[in-house]
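Run: sequence + flavin mononucleotide -> complex structure.
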Amino acid sequence: MEFDAATLDQATQSRLLHGAVTPRPIALVTTLGPDGPNAAPFSFFNVACTDPGMLMFSVSDRDDGAKDTVTNIAWCPEFVIHIVSADMSDRMNVCAVEFPRGVDEIRQAGFTAVSAAKVRAPRIKEAPAAFECRLVQMLKLGRRPYHLVIGEVLYYHFADGLANERGHVDVGRVNPIGRLAGNGGYARITDRFEMPRISYPQWLRMKRGEK
Ligand SMILES: Cc1cc2nc3c(=O)[nH]c(=O)nc-3n(C[C@H](O)[C@H](O)[C@H](O)COP(=O)(O)O)c2cc1C
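>> structure
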């Protein structure tokens, strides 16, 4: 099956991309706006840079304009990105309800808001990992616009025992969920495997039939 993007409508391209680019990590993003704090999940999410640490996520517009996350970041260019663990999934889903503007999803979901160390947006205490960020750039992309938000990480939080002083993270204990396609598809990381990278000398030895 092949598709020429020039012939595709937005909805089909959206289905193809959501269906194939899986599993996607989920950023639960807290912001602060003129109407108070806000939280929303975004699965168009990844690491953008490691020196300094930068994260990126992408937010579509609603039919009637910008989502609260984008409005708030334009007002206060600081936010906290939280990793969503399996035990937070129901509460994360509540944060995606399209509440009227000014409703605090953190409270509605039953999460605990605590002060962040370096940014004004609140941090969700229950998250296994949280990254306090300041906005580097917000790029408007496409005809039905998405806002690609890039943030520099100013402060890292990990729940007790999930990371060591050298920065190694115990992903099994973080226990993140990933987003699949469709209305309700998610994955857990219950079937992991290890595959070390192969150096070029190792590759040559393997080709020669050596160990
Ligand atoms: C798991 C999950 C992932 C989502 N990913 C995105 C995304 O990447 N981009 C986006 O614009 N909306 C995404 N959404 C929808 C937003 O979370 C939803 O529109 C939310 O109400 C926006 O909140 P806000 O207006 O408070 O910013 C996702 C929803 C869920 C449940």
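>> summary
The helical segments are 10-20, 68-75, 89-95, 105-109, 171-174, 200-207. The CA atoms of residues 59 and 104 lie 19 Å apart.
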